[in-house]
């Protein structure tokens, strides 16, 4: 099964449960389009108050790439409807901007996953080249060119490509355990019945290391 198909069977919460060190963009980076699921390598851009770099990235990126823009968290739009349409033509995997996005009337119905910190009608200029394929900061976390971007309605994750397969395996195990617990709860059993809660609390009270697990 392809990795993208395996991601479709889990979610970002299960991945974060599997690995507490996962890079998570801050909650100010929100989905703006009809599709929120993202899975693809980062094509990074750094620019400030000018969106020429974003345009260059859309035209240079490969199908499946996710445009990740370090816009400095400024409240100016660095992309809009035409950029979304252009990214769809190029078959890109999404656009994530730590700045503003505009033309939400179109974007809200768009099949391309689009995330931004702000929605604003005012766009930047087009006179600065910007920087492409460089390490950036987006949503408060480091993003390197080629890092894998995994996102859904819960948020945006940044993962070292070498770790994706293992994380998806671990996330699938989390989902399986959760499904078992949910079935038990539906059958009238309690959270205590489905976890090691009593033993976990007792161990912590004794000052011993312990981990809450499903049983």
TrEMBL record:
Q: Name the Gene Ontology biological process terms.
A: methylation
Q: Which Pfam families match?
A: RraA-like
Where on this chain does Mg(2+) bind? Answer: 103
Catalytic function, reaction form: oxaloacetate + H(+) = pyruvate + CO2; 4-hydroxy-4-methyl-2-oxoglutarate = 2 pyruvate
GO molecular function terms here?
4-hydroxy-4-methyl-2-oxoglutarate aldolase activity; metal ion binding; methyltransferase activity; oxaloacetate decarboxylase activity
Tell me the InterPro entries matching this sequence. RraA/RraA-like, RraA/RraA-like_sf
| Sorted UniProt keywords | Magnesium, Metal-binding, Methyltransferase, Transferase
For the protein in the UniProt heading, the enzyme class is lyase
**Residues engaged in binding substrate:** 102
Cross-referenced CDD domains:
RraA_family (cd16841)
Cofactor(s) this protein cannot do without:
a divalent metal cation; Mg(2+)
Q: What is its EC number?
A: 4.1.1.112, 4.1.3.17
On assembly, the entry states: Homotrimer.
Function field: Catalyzes the aldol cleavage of 4-hydroxy-4-methyl-2-oxoglutarate (HMG) into 2 molecules of pyruvate. Also contains a secondary oxaloacetate (OAA) decarboxylase activity due to the common pyruvate enolate transition state formed following C-C bond cleavage in the retro-aldol and decarboxylation reactions.
UniProt family annotation:
Belongs to the class II aldolase/RraA-like family.
- What is the name attached to this protein's record? Putative 4-hydroxy-4-methyl-2-oxoglutarate aldolase
> What organism is listed for this UniProt entry?
Kibdelosporangium phytohabitans
């Amino acid at each position: 099964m392809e990795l993208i198909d395996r991601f479709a069977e889990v979610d970002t919460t299960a991945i974060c449960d599997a690995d507490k060190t996962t890079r998570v963009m801050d909650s100010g980076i929100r989905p703006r389009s009809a599709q929120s699921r993202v899975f693809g390598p980062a094509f990074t851009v750094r620019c400030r108050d000018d969106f020429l770099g974003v345009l260059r990235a859309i035209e240079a990126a490969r199908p499946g790439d996710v445009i990740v823009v370090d816009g400095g968290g400024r409240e100016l739009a660095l992309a809009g409807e035409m950029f979304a349409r252009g990214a769809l033509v190029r078959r890109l995997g999404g656009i994530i901007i730590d700045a503003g996005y505009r033309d939400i009337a179109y974007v809200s119905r768009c099949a391309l996953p689009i995330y931004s910190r702000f929605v604003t009608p005012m766009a930047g200029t087009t006179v600065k080249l910007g920087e492409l394929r460089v390490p950036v900061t987006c949503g408060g976390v480091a993003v390197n060119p080629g890092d894998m971007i995994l996102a859904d309605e819960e948020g945006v994750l940044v993962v070292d490509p070498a770790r994706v397969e293992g994380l998806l395996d671990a996330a699938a195990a989390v989902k399986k355990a959760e499904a078992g617990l949910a079935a038990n709860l539906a059958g009238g059993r309690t959270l205590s019945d489905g976890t090691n809660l009593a033993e976990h609390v007792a161990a912590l009270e004794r000052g011993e290391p312990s981990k809450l697990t499903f049983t």
